[in-house]
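Worked example 3 (structure in, sequence out).
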């Protein structure tokens, strides 16, 4: 062989080698600790798939990333080839302006797969995976391209192929409301359609056997999984359709009866993240910060005008029927006099704000709908704000829409401008009932955009939003920290009037591992008059008083209501806990928990050495042994323990409470007994 032939052979083989190398893309990625792994593959038909393992065992079997069905155009789903694949690492620590903790670690490895159709329109689609120690997120991006400038998506077909018939804590995939009870069943026993026509729900649409997210599961090997989405922006919510035969879930986007498609977007854009949290202990799901980590950093420069706070207000009395929102009954609640009484009470008890519902024109029929600037004649808004300022208590604004979003949109600027001129910095919004515009659902793209536009608009007026009948939380509080709290579950008010008996004793021990993984909750705890027979003989709260205290710690929210009537707090020594408890935290630790059974959480107050602990149980009594090893060493604290009294029981004896004090350190242990439907709360104050 002559020299030049040899050289060209070598060159050719190098070329061949590098070509084949180029086609051999790296399509796997692992979490920083190597426990969570994702493998991406194209099928022979060029359809994208993924598989997830945890400690080398499958948690999601090969599942199709089944692409997008489009209106007036062929689906984008297969016949793809990979045109590029890249991996990268990311690591940062960011600060929450308010939250369950101050510092958040955000460490992940990313895999980005760029795909292009091999024929016809040669459309492009990119899939990005971010893999964390506590789970993963992935999303689709439509990059800028020649043959696609806009898409009308009629569905997104993402599959989650499960490895077994897991135990599932689920609520139906309702397109209009989240105010359903959670159900505990095997995957194959999920039956969302049995929840159609569920009583006492103001609006509801459950088109098929699908669940809403977060949906949480436990495998037979004891691994916990929770499916949700992050950063839901300009898109419609994802519900998960149940495929019992294949033990799989498939994404089903919420639609619209107005438009004939589910999502309309101009290209380029990307979808929300589809997320899976993975944990060995149930409590780790609560500590996971995956959902906020998958959101963009803070876009609001200054949020110092919003301060986490406890609040009282004209609310529970409305649900009990002691007073009314409108004036026609002659029992109007939101009067200047009543509001001032709440201001005095709050000022006296270390509570920073008062919510006033029913202050504005429009609650009674014949008033021509809501007006967000005109107070009823017996409510002097300027005077209550002035009086509150004098006492150091803020007023919380209230904007109910009764679903008439068009009417609200028209008035938002004037309404927020009024708030700004008065120095009111937060509003509870409400969307009870069927929507106007007709044909839209609370969880579709139109409303997602409305809720998000509201956040952005309100921020311009230094207004924070606590939405009721909201879109679910997907962690946008990281980007817009004026997204302070929301409902999005059956709140305490169901206990005041639900014909099905209210929220059962196990309810919140499921909520902590499902709804709460999405973000802050405005549950409005603190009902002391558990049976309220004076107002309603047939309704009651289904917990003990000690559990009501525990909820200030267990159920996280930066605004926490002391919801009961003032007269029910006066003179009750248990009220001391509500006075003392923090609302903004430096650290959160889940001390124990099993979904639907019990959970105990300890939180350290921000800029303080004080800790608060709350524990709740379901309908079963339990004994717990607590260790305080999370406390600072060589420090003495005074613990005030509020526990279920002897023979306490959510139904038979709900108000029996025992309060004791002891000195503790990080070496102390404590035994507590929880009654059926009970709980305990502890304030730990540094001496
Ligand atoms: C439903 C909300 O959840 C509740 O808190 C409020 O009082 C009513 N709507 C009236 O706006
Ligand atoms: Ca509600």
């Amino acid at each position: 062989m002559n020299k030049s032939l040899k050289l060209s052979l070598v060159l050719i083989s190098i070329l061949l080698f590098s070509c084949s190398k180029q086609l051999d893309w790296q399509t796997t990625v692992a979490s920083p600790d190597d426990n969570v792994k994702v493998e991406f593959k194209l099928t022979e038909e060029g359809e994208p798939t993924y598989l997830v393992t945890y400690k080398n065992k499958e948690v999601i079997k090969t599942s199709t990333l089944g692409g997008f069905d489009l209106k007036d155009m062929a689906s984008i789903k297969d016949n793809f080839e990979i045109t590029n694949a890249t991996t990268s690492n990311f690591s940062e620590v960011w600060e929450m302006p308010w939250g369950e903790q101050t510092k958040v670690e955000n460490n992940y490895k990313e895999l980005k797969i760029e795909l292009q159709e091999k024929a016809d329109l040669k459309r492009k689609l990119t899939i990005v995976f971010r893999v964390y120690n506590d789970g993963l997120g992935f999303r689709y991006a439509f990059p800028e391209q020649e043959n696609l400038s806009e898409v009308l998506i009629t569905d997104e077909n993402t599959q989650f192929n499960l490895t077994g018939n897991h135990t599932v804590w689920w609520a139906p995939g309702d397109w209009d409301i989240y105010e359903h009870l959670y159900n505990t069943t095997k995957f194959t026993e999920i039956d969302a359609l049995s929840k159609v026509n569920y009583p006492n729900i103001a609006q509801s649409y459950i088109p098929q056997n699908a669940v809403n997210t977060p949906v949480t599961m436990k495998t037979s090997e004891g691994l916990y999984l929770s499916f949700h989405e992050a950063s839901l922006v300009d898109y419609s919510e994802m519900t998960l359709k149940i495929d019992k035969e294949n033990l799989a879930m498939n994404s089903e986007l919420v639609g619209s009866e107005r438009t004939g498609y589910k999502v309309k977007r101009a290209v380029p854009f990307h979808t929300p993240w589809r997320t899976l949290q993975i944990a060995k202990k149930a409590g780790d799901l609560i500590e996971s910060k995956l959902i906020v980590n998958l959101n963009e950093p803070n876009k609001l420069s200054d949020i110092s005008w919003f301060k986490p706070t406890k609040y009282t207000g004209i609310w529970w009395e409305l649900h009990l029927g002691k007073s009314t929102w409108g004036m026609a009954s002659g029992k109007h609640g939101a009067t200047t006099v009543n509001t001032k009484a709440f201001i005095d009470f709050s000022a006296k008890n270390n509570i920073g704000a008062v919510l006033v519902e029913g202050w504005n024109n429009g609650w009674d029929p014949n008033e021509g709908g809501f007006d967000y600037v005109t107070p009823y004649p017996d409510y002097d808004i300027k005077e209550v704000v002035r009086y509150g300022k004098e006492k150091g208590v803020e007023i919380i604004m209230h904007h109910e829409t009764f679903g008439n979003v068009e009417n609200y949109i028209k008035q938002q600027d004037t309404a927020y401008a009024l708030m700004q001129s008065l120095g009111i910095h937060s509003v509870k919004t409400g969307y009870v009932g069927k929507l106007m515009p007709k044909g839209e659902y609370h969880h579709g793209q139109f409303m997602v955009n409305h809720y998000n536009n509201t956040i952005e608009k309100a921020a311009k007026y230094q207004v924070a939003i606590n939405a009721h009948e909201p879109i679910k939380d997907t962690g946008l509080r990281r980007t817009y920290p004026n997204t302070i709290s929301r409902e999005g579950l059956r709140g305490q008010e169901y206990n005041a009037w639900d014909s099905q008996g209210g929220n059962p004793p196990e309810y919140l021990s499921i909520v902590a591992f499902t709804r709460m993984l999405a973000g802050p909750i405005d549950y409005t705890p603190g009902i002391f008059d558990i049976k309220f027979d004076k107002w309603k003989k047939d309704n009651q709260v289904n917990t003990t008083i000690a559990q009501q205290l525990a909820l200030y710690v267990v159920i996280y929210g930066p605004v926490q209501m002391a919801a009961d009537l003032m007269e029910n707090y006066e003179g009750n020594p248990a009220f001391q806990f509500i006075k003392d408890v923090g609302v903004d935290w430096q650290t959160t630790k889940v001390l124990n928990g099993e979904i639907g059974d019990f959970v105990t959480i300890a939180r350290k107050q921000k800029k303080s050495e004080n800790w608060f602990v709350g524990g709740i149980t379901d309908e079963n009594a339990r004994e717990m042994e607590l260790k305080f090893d999370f406390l600072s060493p060589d420090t003495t604290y005074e613990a005030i323990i509020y526990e279920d009294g002897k023979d306490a029981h959510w139904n038979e004896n709900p108000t029996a409470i025992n309060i004791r004090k002891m000195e503790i350190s990080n070496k102390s242990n404590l035994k507590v007994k929880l009654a059926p439907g009970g709980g305990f709360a502890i304030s730990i104050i540094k001496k």
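Notes: The longest strand covers residues 80-95. The first helix runs from residue 3 to 23.
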